[in-house]
């Protein structure tokens, strides 16, 4: 029967298709389809079947997009630290900075591996990991000495990490709003990486002699990175003006909360690092 052939082909591509349909079996799926099709007449059968498959794969595209977006940022950060550590005089052996960046590099490389693995587990909706892009770590010349000057390297590192923290936060709603069985594990992966990125950001800021948290839209003396901190001066949270309730200064309140960045905002910040996608 044609429907059975279609189910065979789908199952060959995605062995978890029945789990996506609220853990129904192949037999139950067939019976459910026939009952719905009979009620709606034979002419409506393709519509019924399409509806069932749409339900099975709802949100897959969002998940793939979010993971590849995160992977792009992790590729960039891993490249930044791998290349920086390879420079002969940038991060002196035995220095605290080299110890810290060696550990951060290990984390970022593990993040890359984890995201590639997560994407490999999504057999549908084009769930393939993108290849590592070609990068220009000088930000199209804006930080021309980033790989030779210690202070510039630290400044760009801070901007990257602060962007990463806000980027992960901005994508969380896209994962929460999806409805596939893959979501809980994918959301968990994103949150696990997000918390470590925040630790990186705080540690790098301390290396530069700054507080581990962001005050308002302060760029901490890094030129040309205003977009990284745009909108981080909010004192209204969940519709409540926190300053009117607590009496704490707006500066302290802004430090107490990080605001998300949209995908478009993050790409606008990161694009000058990207020469081309492969």
Write up what this structure looks like:
With 278 residues, the protein is mostly helical. It has helices at 2-13, 17-20, 26-40, 45-57, 60-86, 96-120, 150-176, 183-207, 226-229, 242-246, 250-256, 263-270, and strands at 134-135, 236-237, 240-241, 274-276. The strands form two sheets. It has a two-stranded antiparallel sheet. Helix 7 runs antiparallel to helix 8 (183-207) and helix 7 packs antiparallel against helix 12. The model is unreliable at 21-26 and 40-58 (pLDDT under 50).
Q: Return residue spans where pLDDT drops below 50 for at least 5 consecutive residues.
A: 21-26, 40-58
The CATH superfamily of the largest domain bears the name: Ferritin, core subunit, four-helix bundle
Identify the strand order in the major beta sheet: 1-4
- The helix/strand order is HHHHHHEHHHEEHHHE
Q: Give the number of DSSP strands.
A: 4
Pfam families: Ferritin_2
Organism: Spirosoma validum
Protein name: Ferritin-like domain-containing protein
InterPro entries: Ferritin-like_SF (IPR009078)
Which properties best describe this structure?
278 residues, mainly alpha, Ferritin, 2 domains, two-stranded antiparallel sheet, globular
